[in-house]
Amino acid sequence: MAKHRDTEGRGPSQRMLRVGELIRRTLSEVLMKGDIHDPDLNRLSITVGEVRVSPDLTIATAYVLPLGGGQQDEAIAYLARNKGELRRIIGKKAGLKHAPDLRFRIDKTYDQMEATRAMLSDERVRRDIDKPDAQETDEP
Fold first, then answer.
1. Which of 5, 15, 49, 131 lies at 20 to 30 Å from 119 by C-alpha?
2. Which domains can be identified in the chain, with CATH numbers?
3. Where is the composition biased (Basic and acidic residues) (predicted)?
């Protein structure tokens, strides 16, 4: 019997990361080649930024973004509509014994990076960053 590991407060295991990356690469390839029998999905160019896998490897959440950031709701709907076929193809191409259930979410990473970049370029923030640290000037 397998030991139950408490993963609360810890990051993903190496196995979770490895399987997530394998699914990400395979899903990207499938979407790029247009291997799905759905013309609506095939006409979109979708970037797969990350795939997070549950600790028991039964659920894989793919964080995706359509090219240009538009048609996000449609992209999620098309992916969800074809998740059975995607799951079957990914399981076969990735060589997984049990392909996880696929879930799709919009990847907000690019928006967060842009917001951070805008914040760091603000004049007030630049002034604070460029200011010498008070502790450094007080030391002998």
1. 49
2. 14-131 (3.30.300.20)
3. 121-134
